[in-house]
Amino acid sequence: MNLGFIGTGEITKAVVKGIINSKIKYNKIFLSKRNKIISKYLSSLNQKIYVLNDNQEIIDKSNLVFLGITPKVGKKIIKKLNFKKSHIVISFISTIKLNELKKYIKIKCTIVRAIPLPPISLGVGPVPIFPANKKVKNFFNKIGKTIEIRNEKLSLNFWTMSSMMAPYYEILNHLSLWLHKKGLNKIKAENYITSLFLGLSKNAYQNKYKNLNELVKKSQTPKGLNEQALKELKKMNVYKKLEITSNNILRRLKDK
Ligand SMILES: NC(=O)c1ccc[n+]([C@@H]2O[C@H](COP(=O)([O-])OP(=O)(O)OC[C@H]3O[C@@H](n4cnc5c(N)ncnc54)[C@H](OP(=O)(O)O)[C@@H]3O)[C@@H](O)[C@H]2O)c1
Predict the structure, then answer these.
(1) Res 23: pLDDT
(2) In angstroms, what is the span from residue 147 Cα to ligand 1's centroid?
(3) For the domain 165-255, what is the CATH code?
(4) Least enclosed by CB within 10 Å: which of 26, 38, 187, 249?
């Protein structure tokens, strides 16, 4: 099985790193030259990775074709490419829906939309896919945890949550900067915050709590520091604002 990537940006980099460190069986990986720096870097990691100049050549040589391009580029280039019926096309493109992809791809091959995120480079994290597909499910289960979604409308909720990646990292950034301003070395501050939140997430994911609500309750001592922090943030509507932004992102995804 050969794997081809159209668009070698951040998400392709993460997925390819996940693949080469996984048990996925493949013969060759073909990458598009763009982005030059990333394609050069990835091809230096593994002898089975080849960088090609021509998107059509990548498609012709591959069984699984991944679309790792932005929606704007996708709308421009996909319709100019020729696919075969036997192809499985996996699109990472956030705002091109299945029907639109079918229109651009023309031929009746298998098309699946997937939402990997950068932790896939480490072989962890959920990968929602739509529509359900056994082969694609098994593939992503080797570098993460596939979630099959049977309805595109529902999948947009998962796309919405994927937009919380940068806001989440900004929380870590903000808190690290706060520590740094208080006099802690910047690297030490970042190491502390990232390992703190890694531990908290692992605890939430691996330990058995009835639900997250229970975890929030158990994380507060009456009249303690966590109770105060939570109360203050709630009073300032911080969590309500997460809901507002989620709704705005969902609205944008639906309109496209
Ligand atoms: N980043 C994520 O965590 C993530 C997660 C899930 C889904 N996605 C989706 O995945 C897609 C890519 O996101 P990204 O963050 O990886 O973006 P990105 O880093 O900007 O990568 C896009 C890549 O496409 C290349 N490109 C532009 N025109 C091309 C062409 N004609 N032929 C081949 N390649 C071309 C660009 O090369 P140049 O640099 O040379 O222009 C760039 O390397 C987006 O639709 C995004 O919504 C991203």
Answers:
(1) 96
(2) 23
(3) 1.10.3730.10
(4) 187
